[in-house]
């Protein structure tokens, strides 16, 4: 039985400490000559051996590619929850190079002498099953609650989950007897016996027992990899035929050579391994052996019915993330929205972006209407967008995260090229090394592509303009898969539309931008007693509009706390490095209302914007937000904003300053047309209907437009508020030219409603 797994080779190294560096040097040699896996015996009671986990950690630090595993871990002396965390930690540190061979124990007197509990063979099998349950639960960080396994031999009573390994660490079980073989079929990812301990026929009987147990557990036998420890005599090229037979007739796909002799390692990989790979490949071609699926049957069952997974382009298959993939829980959601996409495609080049769009079209993502068969399509740069539309349910997400290069094109012009998948925090840090900056929102986790196609109201906005005002050219992939460069000279109308409505028109893959010379800046965090809210807003607005354009203030108010005064938090960037100048610019703001807290620092711009903690997005449900652009905070507007806060429908309220350099740009120069706005305001609420009712009554009547990236209200009318009539008409004409099938429609499509009904 050939299960179609890729042929791999490992080495089985004795962890001797008589010459402490010997096993380390052997592992390094194994990596150099091409072995895939280095494994080490685990006998904690043997004083002549290194501790296996300590040795693996050391080897991990001095190697780069080779995978590492105990062969096999002595579970009776390695507490399962601790082993799980140790393995996950080392896997994270090595970028996914850890595997776990597990054993139920054998030298029981020595185990007992070390403080372990002596078990019967049957108890050892039960204990290993309990240990596997705990290990897998520790790694299941997407589940809620603590780990609870009430076993007879191993227990977990609410242990916290995590960390999650960098990849799905396979559990290879050292098994010989029927009960252990059945456990392998139920729970294992691999079977790891030693050929020297087996009698003729044992491999066939073992495979049959494992396959039968797997079938009873609703698993495919091919989900379980077959590994085999082999002796040093197999380094003789004359043994090649036997290894080929073991692969083709018994499904062995990982051969682990047991030797501590450097020359044997070298001879095996030079003379035996290539021949085995070549002959197995030829035999498989002749037999038409199917390649083993990288997903389990249970994972495949989670696939979205509307998608044809076999049609995923070859260029994207290896990195595609499906609902059953290990990476899926880490990638399904965005910063604020929970999602359940059918597949995430992760292109690494513009050509692969085109492949992803071709697949989306083939799956019905470009259907004109909203009827049956229409597949959602989302484009993601980093997943931080407030609208949350870079995920979906049951559809396709094109994740541009791998397109994250940042290069200086022309230092004399401060011209930089930035991939759409980079984050603004990283951009700020890279540019800071040159003494440059690009105004870019207020959070470093935001993706370049999302912000640079929408607007970008940032901490340096009043002096340096919107993020889109820095763009000189954009490389985009159109809906038909063609790659074009949009600039003032090439495709100028597309260049106009991409700066403010890019999500409707194409997929931006890279931007050329001119950075500005920015050294250290002043950054103040002030807290005000805002109990007299209307007066506070009016005075704040006046101070902002009177300030020099080197000052860009943002204001934040959370939900009211019972029994506590209303507090407003201000974040004010001052593009100046002289302390006295910074204080002079801040003084009018300090007089707006009683201060209850203050901090002023000098910092590079990166010190302000590179503030994202990293980690997976944990968004849940649908975010409820509203957005408005305000021309000025008049007494009437100030009272309306105060009444909105009094309504208590928000848990987050932010007022961002605009004006200055933003207003210097003509309203028809970019698709972001509301250049006359002095403020952008956004509110988050827990209840959609209540938030909308308060906003529509109190705030919307004073708005001169809205910033679409901050808006999640899907009711009619939002599009017309985001784009003035002439801008919207121009966008619709451009849309008809570059995306006539309306492929890019899942985030406030500009196509008229009558055109899609």
TrEMBL record:
Domain of life: Bacteria
Domain FAD-binding PCMH-type stretches: 336-518
Protein keywords: FAD, Flavoprotein, Oxidoreductase
PROSITE patterns recorded: FAD_PCMH
CDD domains: Tetrahydromethanopterin_reductase (cd01097)
Molecular function terms, GO-annotated: FAD binding; oxidoreductase activity, acting on paired donors, with incorporation or reduction of molecular oxygen
Cofactor(s) listed: FAD
Pfam family, one: FAD_binding_4
Family membership noted in the UniProt record: Belongs to the oxygen-dependent FAD-linked oxidoreductase family.
Protein name, entry field: FAD/FMN-containing dehydrogenase
UniProt organism field: Agrococcus baldri
């Amino acid at each position: 039985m050939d299960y179609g797994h890729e042929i791999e080779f490992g080495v089985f190294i004795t962890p001797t400490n008589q010459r402490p560096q010997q096993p380390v040097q052997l592992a390094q040699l194994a990596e150099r000559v091409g072995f895939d896996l280095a494994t080490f015996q685990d006998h904690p009671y043997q004083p002549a051996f290194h501790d296996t986990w300590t040795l693996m950690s050391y080897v991990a630090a001095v190697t780069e590619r080779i995978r590492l595993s105990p062969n096999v871990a002595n579970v009776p002396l390695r507490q399962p929850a601790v082993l799980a965390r140790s393995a996950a930690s080392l896997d994270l540190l090595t970028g996914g190079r850890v595997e776990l061979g597990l054993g139920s124990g054998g030298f029981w007197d020595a185990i007992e002498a070390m403080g372990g509990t002596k078990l019967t063979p049957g108890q050892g099998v039960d204990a290993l099953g309990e240990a596997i349950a705990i290990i897998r639960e520790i790694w299941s960080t997407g589940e809620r609650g603590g780990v609870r396994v009430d076993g007879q031999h191993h227990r977990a009573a609410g242990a916290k989950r995590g960390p999650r390994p960098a990849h799905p660490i396979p559990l290879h079980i050292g098994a010989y007897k029927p009960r252990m073989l059945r456990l392998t079929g139920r729970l294992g990812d691999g079977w790891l016996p030693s050929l020297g301990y087996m009698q003729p026929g044992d491999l066939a009987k073992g495979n049959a027992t494992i396959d039968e147990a797997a079938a009873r557990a609703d698993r495919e036998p091919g989900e379980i990899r077959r590994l085999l420890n082999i002796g040093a005599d197999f380094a003789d090229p004359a043994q090649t035929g036997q290894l080929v037979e073991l692969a083709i007739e018994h499904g062995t796909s990982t051969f682990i050579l047991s030797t501590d002799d450097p020359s044997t390692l070298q001879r095996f990989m030079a003379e035996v391994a290539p021949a085995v790979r070549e002959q197995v490949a030829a035999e498989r071609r002749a037999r038409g052996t199917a390649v083993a699926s990288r997903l389990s049957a249970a994972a495949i069952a989670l696939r979205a019915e509307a998608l044809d997974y076999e049609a995923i382009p070859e260029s994207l298959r290896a990195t595609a993330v499906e609902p059953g993939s290990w990476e899926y829980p880490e990638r399904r959601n965005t910063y604020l929205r929970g999602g359940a996409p059918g597949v995430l495609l992760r292109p690494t080049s513009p050509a692969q972006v085109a492949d992803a769009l071709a697949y989306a079209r083939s799956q019905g993502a470009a259907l004109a209407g909203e009827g049956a068969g229409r597949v959602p399509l989302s484009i993601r740069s980093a997943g931080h967008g407030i609208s949350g539309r870079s995920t979906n349910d049951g559809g396709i997400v094109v994740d541009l995260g791998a397109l994250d290069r940042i290069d200086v094109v022309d230092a004399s012009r401060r011209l930089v090229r930035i991939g759409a998948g980079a984050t603004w925090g990283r951009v700020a840090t890279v540019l800071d090394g040159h003494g440059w900056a690009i105004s870019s929102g207020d959070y470093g986790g935001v993706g370049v592509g999302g912000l640079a196609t929408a607007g970008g109201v940032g901490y340096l906005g009043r002096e340096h303009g919107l993020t889109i005002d820095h763009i000189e050219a954009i490389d985009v992939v159109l809906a038909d898969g063609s790659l074009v460069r949009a600039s003032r000279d090439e495709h100028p109308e597309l260049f106009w539309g991409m700066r403010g409505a890019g999500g409707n028109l194409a997929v931006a893959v890279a931007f050329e931008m001119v950075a500005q010379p920015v050294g250290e800046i002043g950054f103040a965090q002030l807290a005000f007693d805002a109990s007299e809210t209307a007066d506070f807003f009016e005075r704040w607005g006046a101070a902002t509009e009177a300030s020099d354009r080197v000052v860009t203030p943002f204001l934040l108010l959370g939900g009211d706390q019972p029994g506590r005064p209303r507090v407003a938090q201000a974040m004010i960037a001052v593009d100046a490095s002289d302390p006295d100048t910074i204080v002079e610019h801040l003084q009018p703001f300090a007089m707006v209302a009683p201060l209850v807290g203050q901090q002023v620092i000098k910092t590079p711009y990166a010190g302000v914007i590179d503030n994202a903690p990293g980690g997976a997005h944990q968004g849940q449900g649908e975010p409820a937000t509203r957005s408005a652009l305000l021309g000025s905070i008049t007494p009437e507007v100030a009272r309306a904003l105060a009444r909105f806060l009094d309504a208590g429908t928000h848990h987050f309220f932010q007022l961002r300053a605009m004006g200055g350099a933003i207003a210097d740009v003509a309203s028809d120069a970019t698709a972001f047309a509301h250049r006359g706005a002095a403020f952008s305001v956004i509110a988050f609420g827990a209840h959609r209907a209540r938030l909308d009712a308060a906003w529509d009554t109190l705030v919307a009547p004073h708005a001169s437009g809205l910033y679409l990236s901050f808006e999640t209200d899907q009711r009619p009318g939002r599009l017309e508020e985001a784009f003035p009539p002439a801008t919207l008409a121009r966008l619709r004409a451009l849309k008809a030219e570059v995306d006539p099938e309306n492929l890019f429609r899942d985030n406030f499509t500009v196509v008229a409603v009558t055109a899609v009904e």
